[in-house]
Each structure stands twice: as C-alpha cells, then as structure tokens.
Amino acid sequence: MVAKRVQEKMTSLFLLNCVDLKSLPPATDPWPPAAATATATATTVLQDVLGELSDATAAEIRTDTDAVTLASTDFGTIVSSAPAAVFYPSCAADIAALVRASCASAYPFPVSARGCGHSTHGQATAAGGVVVDMPSLGRAAARLAVSVEGRYIDAGGEQLWVDVLHAALAHGLTPRSWTDYLHLTVGGTLSNAGISGQAFRHGPQISNVHELDVVTGTGEMVTCSRDKYADLFHAVLGGLGQFGIITRARIPLVPAPARARWVRLVYADAAALTADQERLIDLRGGGAPVVAGLMDYVEGSVLTDYQGLIGSWRSPTSSSAFFTEAGAAARVVAALAEEAGGVLYCLEGAVYYGGAGDTTAEDVDKRLELLLRELRYARGLAFVQDVSYVEFLDRVRAGELRLRAAGLWDVPHPWLNLFLPRSRILDFAAGVFHGVLRRDGVGPVLVYPMNRDRWDPDTSAVIPRDEDEEVFYTVAILRSATTGDGDQLRRMEEQNAAVLRFCEGAGIPCVQYLPHHATQADWAARHFGPGRWDRFVERKRKYDPKAILSRGQRIFSYPLA
Ligand code: FAD
C-alpha cells in the first residue's frame, strides 16, 4: 500500500524537485544523471528500491511536499536542494537496508543523514536522493542509557546534546566537552568536531568519544573504537558524514558541578584579549602564568553590535545582556567603544563549582579575586553572574526563543567559521574585525583559542597545519540577514569572500570549520591540502566506494574520480 503510494508520487515529485534545485555548482556529477533517458531510468530504479524498502522495513517513506520541503534546506536557508524522498527509520537496521539498496542499485542514489538540519549550506541535503530523518530513530524510545559504573552514556546519533546533559545529570554526571548551543544532534556535531569554551582543556567533542555504532556507505553496521576498527572510528569523527552514519555514540562522563560563576570582561583591543585568553588556556604546567587553567570555559567575542538583539542572542538576558544590568557600566562601554573606533572585545569565561565536582564556592571566590586582579581588561568593566550549571550550558536557548518570538530565527545565516594560527590572529583582527566586517554587525563574532594537543590527528577533522604552533584560534562570524531583501545576504556573502581573500592576500593559512566549498578541487586544495586529502579519499574508497553518503557536502560524486 505504502509502496504503491510512493510509486505514484515519485514521477511528479521528481519533476518538481528538479525545478526546485538551486544554483550551487556541482562538485562533479549531479544525481540523477543529466541525460534524459538515464534520468528516467534512475528515477524508476529509485522508485522500485523505495517501494521494496517500504515493504521490507518498518521505516516510513514520504514523498509529500511538506516532508520534501523541510528536508530541502537547513538553518542557513541559503541553499535549497530537494530529495526525492524522506526516510524515517525505526532502527539502525532500516538505515543499513536503505544504504545497501542504494549500493546494489544500478544508479546508487545519494543518502544523507539529517540531524536537525543545523547546517548552513545544504550539507544534510540529498539532491534527488533520500534524506534520512535521524530524529525518527528516537521517537519510540529515548535511546539514552547511562552507565554509572562505567562513567559513560550511550546516546543515539539523533539525540540532542541537551537531552544527553539531562540524562547524565540525573546520575550526578556530565559530559566534559560541549557546543555553545545544545539543541544539536550527537551525530551532527561528531561529524564536524563539536567545539566550545571547554575545548582548550578537554578537546572538541570528537576527542571525547569511546565508541561508535556506524552504518557505513556499504550498508554494514559496525561498532568501532580506538581498539576496534580504529580507522573507521577516526574516519567518522569529523568526517562530514562521508564514511558512515552514526547511530550510537558512547560518551565519557565525569562528576557534574552544580553551578557556574560566569564572567564577562571588556577589552579595548585584541592584543590584550588574546594575550589573556592564551594565559588562561596554558596547560603546560611548569612556569605557566598564574591564571593558567583557572577557568573551565574560555571564549571571547568582538563587540560591534553590543546593544542589539541579534548581536546578543547568545546571551541569557534581553538586549545588551550583562551590560544592561549596570546602566552606568553600559554608558562606560559605549564611551570606550567610541574611543576604540567602534570595536571592543569581550572575554567570556566560567568557573564551575559545587555538586559532585571538587571545587567549592570559597575556591571560586578566591579564583575570581585572582583572575580579576591579574587579567588586563578595562578596569570597571567586569560583569559576573552566578547561575546553575544547566543554565550556563543551555544559555543560547533563551536567545533562540527571543529571536523566534521576534521572527528573526528562520532567516538566512551566511555563517563563516575559521581556524587560524595563533601567530596571525592580530593581523586577522586588524584586517577583518577593524576592516572588512566593520560595515555590517548583525550577529555575534566569536574569537577564542584552543590547544592543538587536545585534537587527535587521526580523526578527519582539519585544523591549521603548522604543528610548531601549539595554539590555534577559532573565529566564528555568525551573522543573520534580517532585512528580508536579498541585498543584505549578498553583501554578507561578499564580505565572507572578502575575509577569505584577505587571508589569502596576507598569507594567513586559515581553514574553515563547518566547511563549505563549491568544487572538489577547492576541497582538496583549500580545505584538506596534500596528505590529508589523500587520506580522506582513501577512506572514502574504503567505507563509501559509491559515494552515497552526505553528498550535500559537495565533496564527492558517483563514480568516485
Ligand atoms: P545536520 O545539519 O543535520 O547535518 C550536518 C552534516 O552531518 C550533514 O552532512 C549530515 O549528513 C551529517 N550528519 C547528520 N547526522 C549524522 C549522523 N548521525 N551520522 C553521520 N553524519 C551525520 N557547532 C559547534 O561545534 N559548536 C557550536 O557552538 C555550535 N553552535 C551552533 C549554534 C547554532 C544555533 C547552530 C545552528 C549550529 C551550531 N553549530 C555549532 C554547528 C553544528 O555543530 C553543526 O551544524 C552540526 O552539523 C549540527 O548538527 P545537525 O544534527 O543539525 O546536523
């Protein structure tokens, strides 16, 4: 019955989908193949495959406009690329059956896992193929199991980190490494890296995984870890969905603190901010600076739009967040901004305490006294809040709800995230924060350092190459095009291109985080570089030889070149 419905709708939908496809240049071959007869054959093959699957698995398959439209785009709302169908698996075996069916078919069609579609450039789309709706794995049961004795949580790849947090906290435990926003899926962030202010100490989320269940591009279901199928384990972590679909991750847990002392310090220049950030994240021991390691979380941001809702959406309270609490201080901040040419910086840090952790409130008071004495922020501009651990970790949610209420969440997000070497961060600040970006605020710009030795070079994640530099920076330019006219979006995209041109011209070797590139040549040269690209391709041949998975990333096409 379902199979028949699928077949009836396929032909008309397929035509509709072809019209919907927007103008990203293909990595190499598009799917379905372009020639008219081949297209017709490919469509028939896909109809047959889906028809058989809907009889053989418990998965639901939908081809209606609502399902297809939702799976055609993402948080970025910049790219639209329609699948032929959306697949709602009830278990990992359903996904394996779908991938095997694609593999076995004469026209291996694209299959992309979609967590929440929080990507910005169509990475979770599958043009003309099948999008796997990962949340449907968790619909029947929560798929979160804590082992108190083993100090880990088994989380379905579709689970949201906020739910992982609450499940672990029920046992007084917590993961160590986070993203700023917790309403992202486990599989989605592990396919990138998963970074936030804890990464300097604990590494990204991909450095905090014991074991994975994966459905490979050949439809095999494999449990892998550092000891078992280690190459697949490392390939999938940071692998941009290219080698397997993560259906379960085992994440280590530690005793959970109860509260966070949350600090924001205003700086008039980038040199003072970055010097302090680097002192705070220095974990070498020995002659390390007196403030080294005193914070559990270290981030920072560029303040150009510190009064606006969009500019402060990552903050817990409305408008200018911390600064409005002290009206006089807000005026001082504004005056300092004027003096500094309109660009200020903010160091954001937190110290955890209480609960099952071993830091007490008295320890935090002492630490804070030392920090506020030693750090070189603009005196008088230190803002401190005491919040629960959950409030701190889930801090971005309040901003999301405010933006949703104002109709400013579902707007285009031309985000650009970069990793760059420590030695060039001030050149970057001068050229970009005080140059290219001065013209358009409209969104937070984050800047914070991380320690290279907390990243496992065997994973697929790409960080700056220069291994002589222990520290590298992330810069996240998280802008929203809010005016509704295409001009603002185009201007922001042009500015992103100008940022990349500036780096190239100034010889700043940056790589993108949450990367997007238009052609395979760009992926090879600009993102991976020699050596790393060869390994990535070799892994692709091994685990997804028909280039079925996550083709929305626009890295590979079928057949593999
Ligand atoms: P999707 O967009 O659904 O998918 C992303 C890619 O991963 C696609 O290629 C998809 O095919 C693949 N994929 C999805 N699920 C799986 C799976 N189970 N197995 C294999 N591949 C899969 N990132 C950070 O690191 N730190 C942050 O602080 C941070 N903050 C963010 C805040 C907001 C508001 C947003 C929108 C994003 C943020 N991100 C952050 C980026 C986020 O980590 C990525 O967008 C991530 O991909 C989101 O997960 P998702 O499940 O929505 O992915």
UniProtKB/TrEMBL annotation:
This is cytokinin dehydrogenase. Its EC number is 1.5.99.12. It is an enzyme of class 1 (oxidoreductase). Belongs to the oxygen-dependent FAD-linked oxidoreductase family. One of its GO terms (molecular function) is cytokinin dehydrogenase activity. The keyword Cell division does not apply. It comes from Eragrostis curvula (weeping love grass). It catalyses: N(6)-dimethylallyladenine + A + H2O = 3-methyl-2-butenal + adenine + AH2. Keywords: FAD, Flavoprotein, Oxidoreductase. Its cofactor is FAD. Monomer. It comes from the Eukaryota. InterPro entries: Cytok_DH_C_sf, Cytokinin_DH_FAD/cytokin-bd, FAD-bd_PCMH, FAD-bd_PCMH-like_sf, FAD-bd_PCMH_sub1, FAD-bd_PCMH_sub2, FAD-linked_Oxase-like_C, FAD-linked_Oxidoreductases_BP. One of its GO terms (biological process) is cytokinin metabolic process. Residues 79-256 form the FAD-binding PCMH-type domain.
